Amino acid sequence: MLFFLYGEDSFRSYEKVLEIKHKFQMNDKSGTGLSSFDASEKKNAPSEIKNALENTGLFSNKKLLILKKIISNSPAEEQAQILIFFKKNIEKLKVDTDSLVLFWENSIPRKNNALFKFLLENAKKQNFEKLSGIKLEQWIIKKLIASETNTAISPLALNKLIAYTNSDLANINQELEKLIAFSCGKIIDDAAIEFLVITNLNGNIFETIDVLANKNKKTALKLIHKHLSSGDDPFYLFSMFIYQFRNLLRISSLQESGVFSEFEISKLTKLHPYVVKKSFRQAKIFGFLKLKKIYAQLCATDLKIKTGKIEIKLALDKFIGEL
Question: Which of 207, 203, 202, 220 is nearest to 322 (CA)?
Fold first, then answer.
């Protein structure tokens, strides 16, 4: 069987990958049927795929092959070879329930990509769209219900959690683990959010940008590497830079237009009042033209990271060093 999981919500799609993997391992007592290949870490995907399937006897034993980021990271010539292989074997894969090949992409591939088109037409597929509004709230509540303590959350706390994490599911999931442990089975209220989540948000980004605004690159680099050494995800840290400098640019644009009320800025930008309050002074120090240049630099670096032209930790260092 051929499965294809993709979409903007890479957190939920990868949760599904782990669910399928766990279910397979429960039945794979020998532990020999599972193979995995990540194109962002290794090359020569066609050879790896053939070794995992053909050379071990295609369709002879139960096996699960997980192929990660093949479309986004494998060269075009490798994708062409992979496409030929699966076109040759697709009819067998469709009816064989003992062999499962799972493609996973952490984004939406380009529509004109040949392998993407093939998977859409021939695989059992699921597009994980970004959650927002009531769907996001329901996802959080289900996560809490599924916890061992069956924890509840107040409506105000729920709204604050979403606002303070910028609706990022990976961040929300991380914060929920802390909140569940902190609440000890009691209802999570807005005070818990203020105490735990805001402290984390402040530590992750606002302090670093404050020292950058004061042109203290050395301290900013120390703060970033402190987060990295403590296990914080570098991709999340970089996404927070993009998020916050985009906010600063929006706030600075309104300041340029003569809007200086934090309440009005929060209303016009739909940013949480806390975020506006923490960003107001930073926007004034940087200025609109400087922020415009910084944001363009971040977008260019983001593209380099996604296309594999620069390693994420080096990108963080270069961004701060060249600011």
Answer: 220
Share of the chain above pLDDT 90, in %: 41
CA distance 3 to 7: 14
Domain boundaries, the chain: 2-127, 131-188, 194-322
Is CATH 1.20.272.10 correct for 194-322? yes
DSSP at 153: B
Q: Which DSSP category does 188 fall into?
A: B
Cα angle for residues 132, 138, 139 (degrees, 5° grid): 80
Number of other residues whose CB lies within 10 A of the CB of residue 317: 13
CB under 8 A, 24+ apart: contacts of 276-282: 276/251, 278/202, 278/206, 279/206, 279/244, 279/247, 279/248, 279/251, 280/251, 281/213, 282/206, 282/209, 282/210, 282/213, 282/248
How many whole angstroms separate alpha carbon 164 and alpha carbon 314?
A: 27
Contact 221, 320 (CB under 8 A): yes
Distance CA(47)–CA(68), nearest Å, equals 15
Q: What is the pLDDT of residue 60?
A: 47
Question: Residue type for 89, please?
Answer: N
- Supply the pLDDT for residue 200: 55
How far, in Å, CA of 203 to CA of 192, rounded? 17
Mode of pairing for the β-strands spanning 63-68 and 2-6: unpaired
Residues forming a β-bridge with 103:
4, 67
Say how far apart CA 55 and CA 65 lie, in whole Å.
13
We find that the CATH architecture of domain 2-127 is: 3-Layer(aba) Sandwich (3.40)
pLDDT beyond 50 at 59? no
Residue 250, CA distances (Å) to 243, 271, 284, 288 in order: 11, 10, 12, 9
Alpha carbon distance 69, 37 (integer Å): 9
Tokens for 188, please give them: 């999570």
- Its pTM stands at 0.62
Closest CA to 124 of 145, 102, 96: 102
Rg (CA), the chain: 23
Place of tokens 């998977």: 119
